[in-house]
Amino acid sequence: MRYTISGKQIDVGEALTAHVKDELGETLGKYSQRPTDAAVTFSKDAHEYLCDAVVHLSTGLTVQARAHATEIYAAFDACREKMDKQLRRYKRRLKDHQKDRSEPVEFGAADMYVLAAEDDEWEAKDGSLEPIIIAEMEARVPTLSVGDAVMQMELAGTPLLVFRNEKHGGVNVVHRRDDGNVGWIDPRGTGTVQ
């Protein structure tokens, strides 16, 4: 597994690097996953250290965790515990995911845009209300089942996930609702809304 351990305006020493590799390797080894690479980034926010960890599994799924503490080792340990909890929660489904899938998850490319946040900035000189694009990027859209998409959203710790449904190839969205449940949007639409 490839490790990228870095700090934002923090010097990450050899002792911390060795600790991260040992502990993260042990955590991932418990769940017999085949991680391909891990990126762990440390930063400081006022008096606290932040630790962000992203691990890509060979199946195409991504596990992500974030934690903070007043000490850098404690921040990493809290982050690792969150990742351990996520993997433990999905251990059976991850094994089923690997068993059922002979090929890694396919990813398609999609254009992604960042729009200006202020409503005042949306009004162009000609008076139209077109949003102003402030950044253009490329996003990766995985091809997954709905269950795998929900699992990926939870593992990545994101509020929503756009994916291509492996049953029919259409673009779908799963999202965390305000009431705590998960919503699923499938715009194939067999009927019309009146």
UniProtKB/TrEMBL annotation:
Q: Which Pfam families match?
A: Ribosom_S30AE_C, Ribosomal_S30AE
* InterPro entries from the UniProt entry: HPF/YfiA_ribosome-assoc, HPF_long/plastid, RHF-like, RHF/RaiA, Ribosom_S30AE_C, Ribosom_S30AE_C_sf
Keyword terms: Cytoplasm, Translation regulation
**Ranges where the Sigma 54 modulation/S30EA ribosomal protein C-terminal domain occurs:** 130-183
* Signal sequence interval, chain numbering: none
The subcellular location is:
Cytoplasm
Please report which protein family the annotation says this sequence is part of.
Belongs to the HPF/YfiA ribosome-associated protein family. Long HPF subfamily.
Query: Subunit structure, per the record?
Result: Associates exclusively with 100S ribosomes, which are dimers of 70S ribosomes. Interacts with 100S ribosomes.
Provide the function of this protein: Required for dimerization of active 70S ribosomes into 100S ribosomes in stationary phase; 100S ribosomes are translationally inactive and sometimes present during exponential growth.
Q: What is this protein called?
A: Ribosome hibernation promoting factor
